[in-house]
Amino acid sequence: RAGPPGGVAVCSGREQTAKMNSVRHAMRQTTGIVGLARIVDPRPVLIDVYQQTLSVLKTLPKDAAYRQSTEQLVQDRLKIVETEASIDIIEHRIRDGMIEEVIQQAQHELSLAKRMAEWKPWEPLEEAPPANQWKWP
Questions:
Q1: What angle do CA 22, 28, 30 make, to 5 degrees?
Q2: What are φ and ψ of residue 95, in 5° steps?
Q3: Is the overall model pTM greater than 0.85, yes or no?
Q4: Largest alpha-carbon pair distance within the chain?
Q5: Which of 15, 35, 47, 86 is paired with 80 by a 20 to 30 Å CA distance?
Q6: Which residues of 20-33 are buried (b: 16+ CB within 10 A; e: fewer)?
């Protein structure tokens, strides 16, 4: 966008904060967690994993409890990641650790969603459970 005369651009407070937070994330050299590497540009990675997860979830029955709860969580988080430019704001709104930890958790959820599609836990049991299996003394 065009700035004021003299070529000095004016940013809103929110834009300025987002830029400062992005710079802070870019300056971070490590996650500080052994075995968890820093990701230079995490937003596209997380968006991709969330989109893949939603695609897998769409293959599950609509009334499956796992699909319903996981789909809602992933959609909510995807919206945050798509609408926020600042990594710090994303981390704050998701409240599940550093962005690299959130990506790792999202990758684990994608893996589980694929396994759930394979396992089909919503289908009836192959064998009837033993009598009183779920009865507590």
A1: 140
A2: 55, 50
A3: no
A4: 83
A5: 35
A6: ebbeebeeeeebee
